[in-house]
Design brief:
121 residues, three-stranded mixed β-sheet
Length: 121
């Protein structure tokens, strides 16, 4: 058995021992590694991750884009899928981009982009 196969089996066993909520939080933390190349902040900090549902054989995530026609959308979705799969390699991953608009008030800290109390978006 290859080292890679053995590691995947160990991860699969480990993920079956934690709750879906714990896995969703681990996924959210791993998604902090996906940085929007134009803004320089990660998906979680930007508030782009709306929902993560962890099921027995699948993970579904809903996310937003900072602009409706973001040129990096396919890349961001692919990076998100890869980061999710690192946490739960034994599950199918589905990422859906929602059509709702994003604004800086959705960020963990809008001040990171220069927005603060009393400032309009």
């Amino acid at each position: 058995m290859s080292e890679e196969t053995r590691n995947e089996q160990e991860q699969s066993q480990n993920t079956s021992q934690v709750t879906p909520e714990q896995l969703a939080e681990a996924i959210r933390e791993n998604l902090r590694q996906v940085v929007d190349p134009e803004i320089g902040l990660d998906l979680v900090t930007l508030g782009l991750i709306k929902h993560i549902l962890v099921e027995e054989n699948r993970v579904e995530m809903h996310m937003l884009l900072t602009t409706p026609f973001c040129p990096y959308a396919p890349w961001l979705v692919q990076q998100a899928k890869e980061k999710i799969a690192q946490v739960v390699p034994d599950r199918e991953v589905h990422v859906e981009v929602l059509p709702e608009p994003w604004d800086p008030s959705m960020m963990e800290d809008p001040g990171l982009l220069g927005f603060g109390p009393g400032m309009e978006w």
